[in-house]
Amino acid sequence: MQMKEPIGGAEPPKLIERVRNKLRVLHLAKRTEEAYVGWIVRFIEFHRLLNSEWIHPQSMGGPEVSQYLTHLAVDKQVAASTQNQAFSALIFLYSKVLGTELKIDAVRAKTPQKLPTILSQEEVLSILSKIPTGPKRLLICLLYGSGLRLMEGCRLRVKDLDFDRKQLIVREGKGGKDRYLPLPQMLSDPLRDQVRKVAKLHAKDFEAGAGWVWLPYAYAVKNPELGRQLAWQYLFPAASLTHDPRPREALEGETLPPSAREADLHQLRRHHIHEGTIGHSDVSTTMIYTHVSTLGPSGVRSPLDSLLTDAD
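The structure assignment produced for this chain is given below.
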């Protein structure tokens, strides 16, 4: 969303630049940065439409934020998780960027209280069988086989695979935590082949004057050449280079085939939790899933290996 008119005497891009800089200083994920900036822009636009003029967030506060959050819950009827993300973005804006504390009194979106659906092995096989052979199918099998969240899988780097230890590492996942996950043995050869494909693409990018990827945190400042190393390349890169300054981005979840909607992917992850191979930082969350299945943890073998072994 482009905003060219001034708000409170300051151009909106300057405020957004301050937000981005603060997010990066605090080492928040790139996806978090995109989400927070989006909510802040929508918050400003909401009050511009109400007042027929730009109003700088510095001139607003708790009542205006409460009004916008209530609008999301009542008028837009967004999910509780969506409203919570908007809430977090605006709290970040005021507390971390503008240095202002807010008192929020908003109608909160309701969280449905229902037990999660656990897919049967037949249902898992049905989802996987509808996905055409190729890198995207490999990614989805890896999401299921290792218990990755969608964007964690999309943003895996070559160096995150550990074939010798039969595991992979998710760096700075949900909550900023690293965790190790099982590497499905049936995907070992396809993943090695994918690494070789990435290496060829990386060499081709070099010839085109590119060949680098986005680096997290201060790596780009301390050692900018890391972004040109094969180890740091995305395991599932986007099909084309960005125009400027031409890095190779990661595959985006939106490009996955319709048969692998995010709802299905989340159900696949629930099936993984049901198998007992991954958990949550909050034990009570994991207990919800094991209560549904009436089964406890059962080791660290990838359910993808178990699934196809049982299917045979």
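Interim note for the steering committee: Residues 86 and 102 are 14 Å apart (CA to CA). Residues 121-311 form a domain with the hpI Integrase; Chain A fold (CATH 1.10.443).
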